[in-house]
Amino acid sequence: MFFLRNLSHTINLHPSYYGPHMKEFLMRNLHGDVEGTCSGRVGFIICVLTITNISPGKVLPGSGLAEFVVHYQAIVFKPYKGEVVDAIVTSVNQIGFFADVGPLQVFVAQKLMPSDFKFDSNGPCYRGDDQMIEKNGQVRLKIVGLKHQATQINAVGTIKEDYLGQIQ
Amino acid sequence: MADNDFRYTIPAEHLPATIIAVKTSKDKSMSDGDELLEYEYIVKREGYVDEDKTALIAQRGEIRATKDGVVEAIHVVKGKVIDNESTVVIDYKGCDHDTQYEGMCVMCCKTVPMNQESHVMMAHDATSLAVSRSEAKRLEHDTVGRLLNEGKLSLIVDLDQTLIHATVGPAIDEWINSQGGMPQDVKMFPLPDSSTPYYIKLRYDGTAGLAVLDRERFLQKVAAIYELHIYTMGTRNYASAVAKAIDPDGKFFSQRILSRDENLNMTQKSIERLFPCDTSMVVVIDDRADVWQYSPNLVKVHPYEYFVGAGDINAGHLPKQDTVVKSEPAPSTGAAPIADLVKESTEAKSELSDTSAGATEATVETETSTAAPTDATAASSDATAASSEEKTPEEKSEEKKVEVTASTVSAPGTPGKVLKAKAPVMDDNDNELKHILEILETIHEKFYDDREVFKLTKPKKQPDVKEIIRDMKKSVLKGVNIVFSSVIPLGQIPQRADIWRQAESFGAICSTELSAGVTHIVAAKAGTQKVSEARRRRNVRIVRPEWLYHSIGKWQRQNEADYILPELANKSSPRSTTPPHNPEDEKNFGGAEGNGEEDQGGESEDMGTIQTINNNVWEDAAKELEDELGDLDDTDFDSDTSNTQSDASTDRGNRSPLTNLKRTRVFRRSGLSTAVTSGGNDDDDDEDEDSDNGRMNVDMMEGGDGREGFGEDDDDDKGMSTQDSDSDIDDENGSDSQQGYSDATSDASGSAVRQRKRRRRSIGKNGGLEDTVGDDDEDDDDGMDADDEVTMDHTHTMQQSQEDDDDDDDVDFLNDLENDLDAQLKDD
C-alpha cells in the first residue's frame, strides 16, 4: 500500500557547500539519500514530495560539518499481509515463482497455487487449466507473509484464491 | 498431509469445561507450544479445605499447539461450555516448513531459523529458497517422472574450458583488431557492471568448417536426450551472458543456470546443490574432476584452450589444478602471454611459405605450416581429417607449443619476410565434444536399456547412471596393471595423483612397484630403473603417458604401438648388454605404420641425437633453410631427402627429427589400420630382437641415425649415404647403415625377425608408400631397420611427443623445418 508519510532525515553537509545555495544542496542530498531505499520499518521510499522543514544547521565540533535535520513528505510503499498486488514474474522454478511488485520481491510457492497448476520445465512455467505463469508474465497475488529486515522486505504470496493468478 | 491436520479437543478428564479465553485467531500462524485456548474446569477434592468435606475447585487448563502451524478454524467462543470429548474446539494445521524463502516458511509465513542440515537449496538462481529433504525428494520425484516421460536424463555442464574458452584483456583486443574483425565463433560482451570486454570462443564440436547451424549440433543433440543445466564458477552476470551467447533463444538451458553466486562454495561444485536426493539420472561434464570431488557422475572433458595461455578465467579461487601430467606451461591468466604467442606465431607464419589463402582458421593454420606449396593443400587437408579424428586436445596444445618454439628458433633466419598476420595462434581443431557426445549418447542409451530391463524384471536396483558410467570406464582399461615411472612427482603421494586416480577409475590397477602382474609401464622417459627393469620382462609394455591420457580422454584403450617410449635414454644405463628397448614397441611400430614409418623410425633415431644438440645448430640450419625452401620437395616422403650422412651427427639429428615428425603424420593416415593389426604379434618378435640388438639401437641413434634420416630425407642428395640413392630407398639406407651396426652387435636371428616385421609393415602400406616397402623387403638386409626405426620413433617422441600424433599443422610445420634442415645439410 502507498502512503504519504512525514519522515525526517539527517544530513551532514560539508563546509564547502555553505552559502546561498545550501538549501539546494540539502535537497539534492536528500533525494539521493532516501529515494529508492527500503527500511523494514517504513517500507520503500518511492519519492520525496516536499520538504516541510529544515532545521538550523548545527556545526559539529571537530569536523566542521553542519548537521541538518530535514523533515520531508514522501510516498512510501509498504506491503501488508493480505494485500492484493499486481506483479511481474521474474523467475520460475519447480518450487514456485518469484514476482516483483515494484521494489518488493514476492515468492509464491507451488503449494500456494491452485491445484491444477503444474510445473513445466520447458519454459519454464506453471500451467493451469486456463492460465500460464511464465517469466515476464503478469500476475495478481495476495501477500500472505512478510519478513521485515533492516534494509529489506521479503514477502510470500499466494494465488490460490479467487481472482488471483495470471492477468490476461 | 493428513498427519499435519490437528483437531484439538478438551481432554475427557477435564469435562465439562468452560472456555475462558481464545488466545488465537483464524489463520494465525502459531509456534510449537503456543497457547491456543484457555478453559476452566471443576475438580472435586477430598479434604482440601476440611477433612471430611469435598471441595469443588476450579482449575485452569489450556490447549497448546503441538507443532508450528496455522489455525484453520475456531469452533468455540469465550464462555462456551464443552461437555463432550468429541467436540472439536480448534482445527489446526501443522507445518513442516518444507519450503522456506529468506528464512520464512512459505506456508505459515513463520520465520524459521535456517538449518543447513534439514534444508537444502534446489533452485538454480536463488539462494534464498530452501526446501526440506522430504520436499526435495518429492520435487525430485516429479522431475524424474517428467524426465522419464520425455526419455531424458539430466546433464550438468560446465562453461569455462568445457563448452567455451573465455578471456579478457587488452592483448586480446589487439589480436582481434589485427584479425580485421571477430574470428568466427568468437563473441564479445561486456558484463553489466564493467566495461571490460570478455571474449569467448565457442568450442567446436568436431564440425569445424561447417555452417553455424551445424555447429550447434552438439547442444542440439545433447538437448534432445538430456535436460541441460549450466553450473559454472563464473559470476551470475557472466553465466547469463555466456548462456546468451551460446544459447540465444534459451532453448537449451532456459533458466537452469547455476553460478558461483548461488553455489555458496568457492572451491567445489556439488551435484547435491541441484539434485539433493537422487543423482541416479544426472551426468556431469566438466574439465576439472577435483572440484566435483571426483564424482561418479562426472564425465571429464579435456580442457578447451583456444586463447593460448589464458587458462580458466574463473578458476582463480580454485585450488591449483594438478598438472603433473601436462607439460604445458602453467596457464597464466594475464594477457601478456597471449600477446607473446601471437607475436611468435606471426613470425612463424611469416617464415613459412604462405600457401594459406582464406580458409577457416583451422585449415589456415595447417596450410601455413606446410612448407612445400605443391602438396600442401592435399596433405594438409588429409592431415586435418586424420588429426581431427585422432588427435586429442592435449596433443594439440603440445604441438602448438612446439610450433612456437620452432618459430622462435628459426626466426633469426627469416627476419625480412613477414607475411600478413592472419595468425591463428588459436588452436581450434579439437573434437572433444564429439567424443563427449558419443559417450553421452551411450550413457543415455544404456540407462534406458537398463530401465526396460528394470521394468520387466523388477530387480531391486533402479538403473543408475553412476553405475553405467563406472562400468563404461572400468571396461576401458580392464586388465591393465600400470606402474608409473617419472610421471608422478616424487613429493606427491602417488595414490593421490590425478593420473593415478583417473587410471584406477578407468579400471586399471596401479602399483608403485613392478610386481608380477604389471602389464604396462607409463613412463615419461626411458632410463629409469623401472623402465629398465620392465625391459627385461617380456610381457610389460612401456608406453608414454599420452597413451593413458588418450585412452582416458576417449574412453577407449588406445593402441600401445602408437605410444612407444623413445628409447635413447638407454645409453647411460649401465647394462648395455640387455636389450635397450622393448621389442614390442618396435614391432608395433612397424606394424602400425607402413613404409613411411620406417622413415620415421630412422628419423626418430635422429631425434635422439637431437635432444643433445644445441639450439644453435637449429638456428643455423634455419637460416640456410630459407634459401632453399623452394628447392625441396616434401611431397614425396620416400624420396625426399637424403643428405650427407657424414655430416656431424648433430646436423642430421636436427633435421631428421623434423622430417620424421612430418612423415609420421603423413604415414599415420595410411598406416593406421595396419598398426592395429600388427600390434599384438609384435611383442614376441620384438623381444627377440631386443636381446639381439639391444645395444645396437642405441648406437645407431647416436651415430648412425643421422645417416638414416638423411637417406630418407633426400633421395637425390648427397652421396654420403652409402646406400642406394633411390627415393624408395630411404628406409633402406637407414637400414643399411644400421645394418652395419646390427651386424656388429646383433645376431642374424635378430635381423631375420626384423625382416618379418618389415614385411608386415610393407603390406600394410598404401600407394606410394608401397614402393618403398617393396624395396625394403627385398633389401631386408636388415632386420635392423625395423629396430632402428622404432628406436628413432621413440626418441622423436620424447622430444616432441605431441607431434607424433597426427597433427596436420605440425606436419606442415615440420615439413618446413625439414626443408630448412636439408638446406643446411646441403651447405655442409
TrEMBL record, chain A:
<feature type="domain" description="S1 motif">
    <location>
        <begin position="78"/>
        <end position="152"/>
    </location>
</feature>
<keyword id="KW-0804">Transcription</keyword>
<dbReference type="GO" id="GO:0000956">
    <property type="term" value="P:nuclear-transcribed mRNA catabolic process"/>
</dbReference>
<dbReference type="GO" id="GO:0005665">
    <property type="term" value="C:RNA polymerase II, core complex"/>
</dbReference>
<dbReference type="GO" id="GO:0031369">
    <property type="term" value="F:translation initiation factor binding"/>
</dbReference>
<feature type="domain" description="RNA polymerase Rpb7-like N-terminal">
    <location>
        <begin position="8"/>
        <end position="64"/>
    </location>
</feature>
<dbReference type="InterPro" id="IPR003029">
    <property type="entry name" value="S1_domain"/>
</dbReference>
<keyword id="KW-0539">Nucleus</keyword>
<keyword id="KW-0240">DNA-directed RNA polymerase</keyword>
<dbReference type="GO" id="GO:0003697">
    <property type="term" value="F:single-stranded DNA binding"/>
</dbReference>
<dbReference type="Pfam" id="PF03876">
    <property type="entry name" value="SHS2_Rpb7-N"/>
</dbReference>
<dbReference type="InterPro" id="IPR005576">
    <property type="entry name" value="Rpb7-like_N"/>
</dbReference>
<protein>
    <recommendedName>
        <fullName>DNA-directed RNA polymerase II subunit RPB7</fullName>
    </recommendedName>
</protein>
<dbReference type="GO" id="GO:0006367">
    <property type="term" value="P:transcription initiation at RNA polymerase II promoter"/>
</dbReference>
<dbReference type="GO" id="GO:0003727">
    <property type="term" value="F:single-stranded RNA binding"/>
</dbReference>
<dbReference type="GO" id="GO:0045948">
    <property type="term" value="P:positive regulation of translational initiation"/>
</dbReference>
<dbReference type="InterPro" id="IPR045113">
    <property type="entry name" value="Rpb7-like"/>
</dbReference>
<dbReference type="GO" id="GO:0003968">
    <property type="term" value="F:RNA-directed RNA polymerase activity"/>
</dbReference>
<comment type="similarity">
    <text>Belongs to the eukaryotic RPB7/RPC8 RNA polymerase subunit family.</text>
</comment>
<dbReference type="InterPro" id="IPR036898">
    <property type="entry name" value="RNA_pol_Rpb7-like_N_sf"/>
</dbReference>
<dbReference type="GO" id="GO:0000932">
    <property type="term" value="C:P-body"/>
</dbReference>
<dbReference type="GO" id="GO:0010590">
    <property type="term" value="P:regulation of septum digestion after cytokinesis"/>
</dbReference>
Automatic annotation (TrEMBL), chain B:
<dbReference type="GO" id="GO:0008420">
    <property type="term" value="F:RNA polymerase II CTD heptapeptide repeat phosphatase activity"/>
</dbReference>
<feature type="compositionally biased region" description="Acidic residues">
    <location>
        <begin position="681"/>
        <end position="691"/>
    </location>
</feature>
<dbReference type="Pfam" id="PF00533">
    <property type="entry name" value="BRCT"/>
</dbReference>
<dbReference type="InterPro" id="IPR036420">
    <property type="entry name" value="BRCT_dom_sf"/>
</dbReference>
<comment type="function">
    <text>This promotes the activity of RNA polymerase II.</text>
</comment>
<keyword id="KW-0539">Nucleus</keyword>
<feature type="compositionally biased region" description="Polar residues">
    <location>
        <begin position="570"/>
        <end position="579"/>
    </location>
</feature>
<feature type="compositionally biased region" description="Basic and acidic residues">
    <location>
        <begin position="388"/>
        <end position="403"/>
    </location>
</feature>
<feature type="region of interest" description="Disordered">
    <location>
        <begin position="631"/>
        <end position="828"/>
    </location>
</feature>
<feature type="region of interest" description="Disordered">
    <location>
        <begin position="345"/>
        <end position="415"/>
    </location>
</feature>
<dbReference type="InterPro" id="IPR004274">
    <property type="entry name" value="FCP1_dom"/>
</dbReference>
<protein>
    <recommendedName>
        <fullName>RNA polymerase II subunit A C-terminal domain phosphatase</fullName>
        <ecNumber>3.1.3.16</ecNumber>
    </recommendedName>
</protein>
<dbReference type="InterPro" id="IPR039189">
    <property type="entry name" value="Fcp1"/>
</dbReference>
<feature type="compositionally biased region" description="Basic residues">
    <location>
        <begin position="754"/>
        <end position="763"/>
    </location>
</feature>
<dbReference type="InterPro" id="IPR036412">
    <property type="entry name" value="HAD-like_sf"/>
</dbReference>
<feature type="compositionally biased region" description="Acidic residues">
    <location>
        <begin position="772"/>
        <end position="790"/>
    </location>
</feature>
<dbReference type="InterPro" id="IPR023214">
    <property type="entry name" value="HAD_sf"/>
</dbReference>
<dbReference type="GO" id="GO:0005634">
    <property type="term" value="C:nucleus"/>
</dbReference>
<feature type="compositionally biased region" description="Acidic residues">
    <location>
        <begin position="595"/>
        <end position="606"/>
    </location>
</feature>
<dbReference type="InterPro" id="IPR001357">
    <property type="entry name" value="BRCT_dom"/>
</dbReference>
<dbReference type="Pfam" id="PF03031">
    <property type="entry name" value="NIF"/>
</dbReference>
<feature type="compositionally biased region" description="Low complexity">
    <location>
        <begin position="355"/>
        <end position="387"/>
    </location>
</feature>
